[in-house]
């Protein structure tokens, strides 16, 4: 049994669109041929007759790309199921076109032990939606005091180590973690934040903070960790990946590190490419996230860094919270916004539809490049690859409506934004895991 997606608009090697038919057999891309090629090109004589009974999907006028990959997400389970579960989070992911997602360990208990890694993997398998790759914590309880058992966590299925949600405050602790991770050929993924420079500030330093009499988070609180960790990565040889880069200072340091061959990679979130602190309309905690929205200068630096390869990939940092929590106001509400269901349309509308980026540029930063950085066997539309695919409608315009989200989280600053580029169907290993009601 298989599927045949006909008349799909597909990006070729040169990044140009071509009309293709994609044959999927046993969860893999069996063949990709010109859309008007005859059936004989799709099936050779070795294809068993029963496999020729295939389901047809007409993709006329729609883009088909490799399933999106999101290497930084919060699924909240175990412990915070009122915010999100692995099931609702992965449903939100596939609705947003993501087929592979890597989830952060700041759950309760923290994913600092093999049992919790396995629980996450089992729940993800039960949900049967996106492929879920768990990260494990660097330190027990993400408390920064004692390293976790890296070997056992790797053995249980963790794909990297991070204390996301907090920075590892001790340089020695980080260095020890990097040595251990390097020996296991595993990456260290860092939330960069020096707590002594933050002191409970809810937003970035700048005009908004001044106007509202709020403390500001300075750019150095991020960049100091980036600089420190780059030196430690140089000393230890680990693959060091910087989370949610948001400042021009961090970018400068990453650029220099890459120039001299240090094994550093970096990610950026859609909101840090689209919004600055000047856009925050008032004391609404749907605009509160960590790192915070910074200055227009930082936004410009993030865009340029993605364009010149200093930043490798785009991630959402999908961070659902309940409405009650977000109603506590700018000072008291938790940091974080949801991201799965708006990421692609936001970036497509802002950067591709306007001609700033090619479609190929955006798609690569969300598919092939994260796969390359984290050595994943997906993210490409090629014969023999897993049939992780996303079909996208580039024409219809629709406003962001949080009430329609599959996520339990409604916390987005993008409500009402009119966007194009909405995913309409998602396949994981050849299984249709999501389809839009109206097309
Ligand atoms: N990004 C956020 O604002 N919040 C994240 C934590 C994190 O990514 O640091 C969360 O877990 O809610
Ligand atoms: Zn973080
Ligand atoms: Zn995060």
From TrEMBL:
<feature type="binding site">
    <location>
        <position position="72"/>
    </location>
    <ligand>
        <name>Zn(2+) 1</name>
    </ligand>
</feature>
<feature type="binding site">
    <location>
        <begin position="74"/>
        <end position="76"/>
    </location>
    <ligand>
        <name>substrate</name>
    </ligand>
</feature>
<dbReference type="Pfam" id="PF07969">
    <property type="entry name" value="Amidohydro_3"/>
</dbReference>
<feature type="binding site">
    <location>
        <position position="317"/>
    </location>
    <ligand>
        <name>Zn(2+) 1</name>
    </ligand>
</feature>
<dbReference type="InterPro" id="IPR032466">
    <property type="entry name" value="Metal_Hydrolase"/>
</dbReference>
<keyword id="KW-0378">Hydrolase</keyword>
<feature type="binding site">
    <location>
        <position position="164"/>
    </location>
    <ligand>
        <name>Zn(2+) 2</name>
    </ligand>
</feature>
<feature type="binding site">
    <location>
        <position position="191"/>
    </location>
    <ligand>
        <name>Zn(2+) 2</name>
    </ligand>
</feature>
<feature type="domain" description="Amidohydrolase 3">
    <location>
        <begin position="358"/>
        <end position="433"/>
    </location>
</feature>
<feature type="binding site">
    <location>
        <position position="74"/>
    </location>
    <ligand>
        <name>Zn(2+) 1</name>
    </ligand>
</feature>
<dbReference type="GO" id="GO:0004151">
    <property type="term" value="F:dihydroorotase activity"/>
</dbReference>
<dbReference type="InterPro" id="IPR004722">
    <property type="entry name" value="DHOase"/>
</dbReference>
<dbReference type="InterPro" id="IPR002195">
    <property type="entry name" value="Dihydroorotase_CS"/>
</dbReference>
<keyword id="KW-0479">Metal-binding</keyword>
<comment type="function">
    <text>Catalyzes the reversible cyclization of carbamoyl aspartate to dihydroorotate.</text>
</comment>
<dbReference type="Pfam" id="PF12890">
    <property type="entry name" value="DHOase"/>
</dbReference>
<feature type="binding site">
    <location>
        <position position="290"/>
    </location>
    <ligand>
        <name>substrate</name>
    </ligand>
</feature>
<comment type="pathway">
    <text>Pyrimidine metabolism; UMP biosynthesis via de novo pathway; (S)-dihydroorotate from bicarbonate: step 3/3.</text>
</comment>
<dbReference type="InterPro" id="IPR011059">
    <property type="entry name" value="Metal-dep_hydrolase_composite"/>
</dbReference>
<feature type="binding site">
    <location>
        <position position="321"/>
    </location>
    <ligand>
        <name>substrate</name>
    </ligand>
</feature>
<dbReference type="InterPro" id="IPR013108">
    <property type="entry name" value="Amidohydro_3"/>
</dbReference>
<dbReference type="InterPro" id="IPR024403">
    <property type="entry name" value="DHOase_cat"/>
</dbReference>
<feature type="active site">
    <location>
        <position position="317"/>
    </location>
</feature>
<keyword id="KW-0862">Zinc</keyword>
<keyword id="KW-0665">Pyrimidine biosynthesis</keyword>
<dbReference type="InterPro" id="IPR050138">
    <property type="entry name" value="DHOase/Allantoinase_Hydrolase"/>
</dbReference>
<feature type="binding site">
    <location>
        <position position="164"/>
    </location>
    <ligand>
        <name>Zn(2+) 1</name>
    </ligand>
</feature>
<feature type="binding site">
    <location>
        <begin position="335"/>
        <end position="336"/>
    </location>
    <ligand>
        <name>substrate</name>
    </ligand>
</feature>
<comment type="similarity">
    <text>Belongs to the metallo-dependent hydrolases superfamily. DHOase family. Class I DHOase subfamily.</text>
</comment>
<feature type="binding site">
    <location>
        <position position="106"/>
    </location>
    <ligand>
        <name>substrate</name>
    </ligand>
</feature>
<protein>
    <recommendedName>
        <fullName>Dihydroorotase</fullName>
        <ecNumber>3.5.2.3</ecNumber>
    </recommendedName>
</protein>
<feature type="binding site">
    <location>
        <position position="244"/>
    </location>
    <ligand>
        <name>Zn(2+) 2</name>
    </ligand>
</feature>
<feature type="domain" description="Dihydroorotase catalytic">
    <location>
        <begin position="61"/>
        <end position="249"/>
    </location>
</feature>
């Amino acid at each position: 049994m298989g599927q045949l997606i006909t008349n799909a608009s597909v990006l070729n090697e040169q990044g140009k669109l071509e009309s293709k038919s994609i044959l999927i057999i046993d969860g893999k891309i069996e063949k990709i041929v010109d859309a008007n090629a005859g059936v004989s090109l799709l099936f050779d004589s070795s294809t068993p007759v029963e496999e020729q009974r295939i389901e047809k999907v007409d993709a006329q006028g729609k883009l088909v790309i490799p399933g999106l990959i999101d290497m930084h997400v919060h699924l909240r389970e175990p412990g915070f199921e009122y915010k999100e579960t692995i099931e609702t989070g992965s449903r939100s992911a596939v609705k947003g076109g993501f087929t592979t997602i890597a989830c952060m360990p700041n759950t309760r208990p923290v994913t600092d032990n093999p049992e919790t890694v396995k629980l996450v993997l089992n729940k993800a398998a039960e949900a049967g939606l996106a492929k879920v790759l768990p990260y494990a914590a660097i330190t027990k309880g993400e408390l920064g005091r004692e390293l976790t058992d890296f070997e056992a966590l790797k053995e249980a299925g963790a794909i990297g180590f991070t204390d996301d949600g907090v920075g590892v405050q001790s340089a020695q602790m980080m260095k020890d973690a990097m040595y251990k991770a390097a020996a296991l050929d595993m990456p260290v993924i860092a939330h960069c934040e020096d707590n002594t420079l933050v002191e409970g500030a809810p937003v970035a330093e700048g005009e908004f903070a001044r106007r509202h009499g709020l403390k500001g988070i300075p750019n150095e609180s991020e960049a100091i960790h980036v600089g420190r960790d780059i030196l430690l990565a140089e000393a230890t040889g680990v693959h060091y990946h910087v989370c949610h880069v948001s400042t021009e200072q961090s970018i400068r340091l990453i650029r220099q590190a890459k120039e001299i061959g240090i094994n550093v990679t970096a990610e950026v979130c859609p909101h840090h490419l689209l919004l600055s602190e000047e856009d925050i309309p008032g004391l609404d905690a749907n605009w509160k996230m960590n790192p915070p929205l910074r200055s227009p200068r930082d936004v410009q630096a993030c865009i340029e860094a993605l364009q010149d390869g200093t930043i490798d990939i785009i991630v959402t940092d999908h961070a659902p919270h309940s409405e009650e929590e977000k109603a506590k106001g700018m000072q008291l509400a938790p940091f974080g916004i949801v991201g799965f269901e708006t990421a692609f349309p936001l970036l497509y509308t802002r950067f591709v539809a306007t001609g700033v980026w090619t479609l190929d540029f955006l798609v690569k930063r969300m598919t092939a490049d994260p796969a390359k950085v984290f050595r994943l066997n997906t993210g490409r539309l090629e014969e023999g690859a897993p049939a992780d695919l996303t079909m996208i409608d580039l024409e219809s315009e629709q406003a962001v409506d949080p009430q329609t989200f599959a996520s339990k989280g409604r916390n987005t600053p993008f409500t009402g934004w009119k966007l194009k580029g909405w995913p309409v169907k998602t396949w994981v290993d050849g299984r249709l895991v999501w389809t839009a009601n109206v097309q």
